[in-house]
Amino acid sequence: MTIHQAEVIAVARDSTHRFSKMPQPGITLLAGLGVEGDAHAGVTVRHRSRVRADPAQPNLRQVHLIHAELFDQVAADGFRVHPADLGENVTTRGLDLLVLPRGTRLTFPSGAAVEVTGLRNPCAQIDAFQPGLMRRLIGTDEAGDPVFRAGVMAVVVTGGDVAPGDAIHVTLPPEPHEPLRRV
Predict the structure, then answer these.
(1) In the chain, which end has fewer C-beta atoms inside a 10 angstrom radius, N or C?
(2) Residue range 89-101, pLDDT digits in tens
């Protein structure tokens, strides 16, 4: 399925482990690794907290995607968040990333493709970035369970370039669909 309005509005990477990333005119995705030149690229985990827990676990967080609509939502509460501020590699618009099932493939015009692995687990650094923002990124559903809104994580299936303005083609996995969980 193609969501006609779905597009990339910004891309970012950073070679060091900082909270925010550096906006770029384009990024290159490397199959099985992540974003070329990004501190989180690798076959095994690169997020510092996960490395401490088990450095041999597979890296299901090679690429971080956030929907720009989230920035609009938190702006209504007085927060100013821009692309790359929350550490994402790809900022999208026109695609509700949070409702996609696990295994959804997002393909870009270059042929680059990522497979969604799960929800980003928001961390305490969010409140260090802007006090109070963390509670806006974690809500609760009708059952009282946490709802994570800080974007999705993915692995790179096919390498290639991604740039602002790129359309996003969405391919859902076979049913039954598995909802996203924290990774």
Answers:
(1) N
(2) 999 999 999 999 9
